[in-house]
Design goal:
Two copies of one chain form a homodimer. By secondary structure, chain A is α+β, with helices and mostly antiparallel strands. Chain A has one domain: Winged helix-like DNA-binding domain superfamily/Winged helix DNA-binding domain (Arc Repressor Mutant, subunit A). Chain A has a three-stranded antiparallel beta sheet. In chain A, about 65% of the residues lie in helices and about 15% in strands. In chain A, a hairpin with a 2-residue loop joins strand 2 and strand 3. The longest helix of chain A has 23 residues. Chain A contains five helices and three strands. At the A-B interface, helix 1, helix 2 and helix 5 of A face helix 1, helix 2 and helix 5 of B. The first copy, chain A, binds a DNA duplex through helix 3 and helix 4.
Amino acid sequence: MDERTRAKYEARVRIIKAMAHPTRLFLVSELSRGERCVCELTQMVGADVSTVSKHLALLKSVGIVQDRKEGSQVFYSLRCPCILEFSDCVESVLRATAEEQLALAE
Amino acid sequence: MDERTRAKYEARVRIIKAMAHPTRLFLVSELSRGERCVCELTQMVGADVSTVSKHLALLKSVGIVQDRKEGSQVFYSLRCPCILEFSDCVESVLRATAEEQLALAE
DNA sequence: TCAGCATTTGCAATTATAGCCAAATCGCCA
DNA sequence: TGGCGATTTGGCTATAATTGCAAATGCTGA
């Protein structure tokens, strides 16, 4: 794998890695319903505000979400609605595995 | 986020995490072209065999790939062709970011 | 200007990952 | 059976990620 190829995969990996955390995946799925402010998200997640803020900053840094300030609040929203396709793939892997396990159990 | 919800996201995260590594993303994309044995993949990646073997084992453990032994060789293949949809989403985030950067530069 | 909420940033400790080398397995064939 | 090539596993070290607390920043309304 040459330098150029590796760089290409690393760019994609940054985005995938951003989704590879339970809290961030939850945030993304919550944002797929619509804009939310940090305080709302923090309450839903149930972790420290600073932790949630950092997760959101990471998602933003790779371009998955965008933010909008309104007064002292910050509203985050999805920048790409494609997350659904993304999830579909994950779901189908999960389903395939579950079906296989079921078959083995019989 | 209650226990049950968290467990749901963790199951999905295991799959996403498996893709969140340059070498593994490369392996998956290479396997999307067809079955390959460990020795071929090792050569393409250019890392230690043991390293590649561990990456493949991880991909297998979450159900993304499957293996088939033939003599002393092991052939890996994709278990879910959906990786393409997965990539499409990643690509569109990349593209959106690139376009935005371009617009800012003008 | 000051107090007060919302959010981000700096810091330090804990935990998880990745990589290589060496050693163990496994199947094949002389 | 013994050796050989292919692959996996164990062990160890180095690096990266995650988290909460405390402090800093920003905005708003009195």
